[in-house]
Amino acid sequence: MSRRLAGWLAATGALVALPVAVWANAGAEAATDALLSVGRPVEASSVESPELGAANAVDGDGRTRWGSEEGVDPQWIAVDLGARRAIGRVRLRWEAAYGRAYDIQTSDDGTTWTTIAGTRAGAGGTDDLTGLTGEGRYVRMYGTARGTKWGYSLYDFDSYGTGPASGDAPAPRRPGRASQAAPVITSGAPRPSRPATTRTATTTPSGTGLADPRKKEIAMQLVSSAENSSLDWKAQYRYIEDINDGRGYTGGIIGFCSGTGDMLDLVEAYTSRVPGNPLARFLPALRKVNGTDSHAGLDGFPEAWRSAAADPEFTKAQDGERDRVYFNPAVTQAKSDGLGVLGQFAYYDAMVMHGPGPGADSFGGIRKAALARAKPPAQGGDEAAYLTAFLDARAAAMRTEAAHSDTSRVDTAQRQFLRDGNLDLHTPLAWKVYGESYRIP
User: Fold this and answer.
1) Angle made by CA atoms 222, 367, 61, in degrees to the nearest 5
2) Using CA atoms, how far apart are residues 427 and 34, in angstroms rounded to an integer?
3) Rounded to whole angstroms, how far apart are CA atoms 217 and 201?
4) Which residues of the chain have pLDDT under 50?
5) Helix or strand (DSSP H, E) at 242
6) Residue numbers annotated as active site
């Protein structure tokens, strides 16, 4: 199953209901909500010690926890989702110090709160509150009675939602690669011009490491196994469809998207090479839909894309934009961090899916999270330990987006190479993605 199919299933699949031991403002059904809270800003009424900070409850790592001051009621923890959201589910995984009585509340301003769920007979363990109908930018657990003599302690404080609440404009960033997109502009609002400096050149790494032609071919095959369920990455130049992941059309060798800016950059680059190409007439529409999942003005665009794919200049443009936006920056940064071929590929694959931006769910944020846990070789750290931290952070970022929450391209591919000690991606290579087996002899 390719990432395209995985994204479609995540967008359309049914929810598996879980037992709920608390009361809630129930909606019609618990929607196929996306996890919204991982990596978001969070505050708490108190912390027991610096290592038990509030951020531990939303870091996606089930081993870390927030712990409040002991013996004091009330206590609370609140997460900022960044925009007003429709909240359909909240999940709390307690440490031994649990809340016997608490409310789940939402707020638009962090001051005025509305209770959407709660219990007065909590028993610890995991409280999975589904079918909620709350809305707000902030979600809070407000504990009024401890279940033990200690405080309140949560391994996970997860908030799920379907996106911006009704009547609100979309949030300015989507999870994943859309983090590099231009701001979302609501209908009728003035749209800023796209600065010419957006298309900056990147340094081409020397032909060593992943930039070696043989290793680069392996990298292209590894990515294609996840993106296309095929090692034949060159067959993907003509591919285009909407996979219902909120990014509009996805096309080409690494999944350029009409909603994230890189497809627009590609068509602009191609048009600079071949002004009268089949895609040039769609440039005004691509600029308008950038940052959204809209198809407005793109009637006939998929057919034009497939026609353009017969032009060698278009395939060269795809290669060039892949290298400029993703491959070159990834390999350059990985070499600067002292990483070998596997680490260089891990950076590249992360940039392809999550984008090169600085956001928590983009490559920059994933690398920052890894650096907080381990030092790379360039800083005197162990390469395997750092790569483990990076892949952990990468998987956590993937799980924040329902369409890409299957982490097998990390867990049964890159982690497998790491467990084998294959830091230079020597062949033969064998791995699995979405349950399918692949091999490069």
Assistant:
1) 95
2) 37
3) 22
4) 1-21, 26-32, 164-203
5) strand 240-242
6) 227, 245
